[in-house]
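Quick one: structure for this chain?
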Amino acid sequence: MMAAGTAFTLIPSAQLLAKTPGKRYAMVFDVRRCTGCLSCTVSCAMENKTPVGRSRTDVSQVTVTGKSFGSAVLPMPHQCNHCDNPPCVAVCPAKATYKRPEDGIVVIDYNKCIHCQACTKACPYGARKADPEFKTAPEKCNFCIHRLQEGLLPACVETCIGKARVFGDLNDENSEIYRLVKENKVYALLSDLGTKPNIFYIGLPDDIDDKAMLQTKPIQWQR
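Got it. Here's what it folds into:
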C-alpha cells in the first residue's frame, strides 16, 4: 500500500532522456490504461514464487483532486523504483544490494544478504517487503532479470491486460518507452529526495500538482 503523503513531480523529458553509459532500464505506468485487475501482482508472485503477503508489485486506489476535474480515483501501480541514487544500497552492511552498472537494475545478492532488513526501512517508497522473522531476504522487484536474459519481458508487463506497463531501455531511441517519455507528461514519485527513480507515470490529470498528491488517501485495491 502506498503511504499517504506521496508526491508526484513532473519531470522534463529532456532530463529523462539524457544519455547514460550502457543500458538504462525503466518502466512506465500509464494509469489511463490500468484496470486494477492485479494480474501484475499475481503473475509476479507466480514467476518469482514470493511469500504470501510480500508481493513485489501491487496496485493501490488513489483519490486525487485537481482544479479542472474535481476529484478522481486512479489505480496506481507501485514497486521498486530502481533509483539512480538508491538509499537501500547505502545502508546495506553486507553490500548485498547494489545497482548494476550495465543496465541500472537494483538487485540483491542473495548469497551475501544477511537478512537484517535494514534496506526495507531505508526505502522511501516502501517497495521492499521485509521478512518479519529475519530468516529470508527482503522481497523486491528486479525487473525479472532471469526473463530479460532470455529476451523476455518482465512477467508483470507481459500479463498486463490493459498494456498499462511499458518496459525498456531509455537509452534506445527506437524503443516504445523512449517514445512514451518523449511524447507525454511524465511524473515520478518523491523526486525531491534526490533518489532519481526509474519508474514513471503518465496519464495523470494535467493540473495535478504535488500539493494535491500530498493529500491523497490511497487504500488497497480490492476485488
